[in-house]
Amino acid sequence: MPQPSGWKDTKKHEPSKNLQENICPIHDEVMKMFCRTDQKCICYLCSVDEHRGHDTVLAAAERTERQRDLEESQQQIQQRIQDREKEVKLLQQEVEAINHSADQTVKDSEKIFTQMIRLIQKRSCDVKKQIRSQRLTEVSRVKDLQKEFKREISELKRRDAELKQLSLTEDHSQFLLNYPSLPPLSESTHSSNEWTNISPTVTHVDVLLRADFLKYSCQITLDPNTAHRRLLVSEENRKVRLMEEPQSDSDHRDRWFQVLSRETLTGRCYWEVEWRGKFVYVAVAYENIIRSEYDSRFGFNDKSWALSLSPDKFSFLHKEIQTTTLARVSSRVGVYLDHTAGVLSFYSVSESMTLLHRVQTTFTQPLYAGVWLGHAVGDTAEFCKLK
C-alpha cells in the first residue's frame, strides 16, 4: 500500500539508526569489543591500533559481567525496599499501639477521675452531715441554756418583787416576822463559763488521701510486759482484748492497766488501729509516764496524748483537759506523728481521711504508741499491717 507523501516509517528507520551507532566511525567495522581503560565500545581494528595495550574484552563478555552486577544491584535495591516496607509496617503497628495505649490511658484516667469525683461527692455529703450534726448539737446546748437562764430570770424577778414588797412594810414586827420566811438565793445550776465552752464555729474537716500517709507507715507491736493482767495480747503482739479474768500471774515492773508499744517513735510515723467496743483509747506517751497512780491514765497527765473512741462520740485528752465531739467515727483510726515538728494528728479512716484532732506542741522525748481498754469486757484494739 503506498504511503502518503512525507510519511516516515519509524519502525523501519529505528534499527538502521541503532546499527549505525554500532559501526566504528574510523574503520567502518562493527564494534564488538569494549575497552575497559577508556570505557567505550570499539572495533577489532581499534583494539590493535590506537587502543593497543588497553584492557579490552568482547562487548558480550563485558555485558554479561555488567548484567550480573546489575542484577546484584537490583537484588540489593529490592531487598532494601522489602526491609523498608517491613519497617514502615512495624512503624505503623507502633503508631497503632501508641494510639491504643493513649486511648486506654484516657479511659483509665476517666474512670479514676470519675471514682474520685464520686468519692469527693460522698465525702462532701458526709462532711455536710457532720456539720449539720455539730450544728444541731451546739444549737441544742445553747437553747437549753437559754431556757434555763430564762427560768432563772423569772425566778429572780419574782424574788425581787417579794423583797421589794417586804421592804415597803411599815410594821416592824410584820417585817421581822416575814423576813425569815424568805429562802436564801440559790446558786446557779450552771457555771459562769459553761456557755463560753460552746464552740461558735463548726469543726473544720480535712479530706485527705490515705496514700499520702502510707509513705510514713510503721509497724507497731505491743510489749506484753507493759500490759495489764486482764489484757490479752495476740496476733503477733498487734492485738489486745480486755478479758474478764487475769491472763497472767507475772508481776513485771513495767506492767500497768494500759499497754505500750515495743517501738520508740521519732521522726515521721503513721499507723492505724482497728477498734471495737464501748471505750477505746488510742494514745502516745513518754516512756517515763507514771505507772502506779490513777493519774497515769492516757490523757490525764502531761506525758501522754489520747483519743477516746466510743460508738457515738470521740474525745481528745491531754493534761486532764477533754475536748468532746458528738460524731460517729470509723472503726479504723489513723495516727500521724511528726516528732520533730511537734505534730500529732488523729484521723478517721474510710474511703478517705477525715481529721478528728490535731495537736501542735513540742515533744521532748521519744514516744511510744499505747492503748487503754478499761471499761467493758470484749473491747479490742488491733494495730493494722500496712503495705
From TrEMBL:
SMART domains: BBOX, PRY, SPRY. One of its GO terms (molecular function) is zinc ion binding. Pfam families: PRY (PF13765), SPRY (PF00622), TRIM_CC (PF25600), zf-B_box (PF00643). Gene3D superfamilies: 2.60.120.920, Classic Zinc Finger. SUPFAM superfamilies: B-box zinc-binding domain, Concanavalin A-like lectins/glucanases. Residues 19-59 form the B box-type domain. Residues 67-101, 139-166 form a coiled coil. Residues 200-387 form the B30.2/SPRY domain. One of its GO terms (cellular component) is cytoplasm. It comes from the Eukaryota. This is B30.2/SPRY domain-containing protein. Keywords: Coiled coil, Metal-binding, Zinc, Zinc-finger.
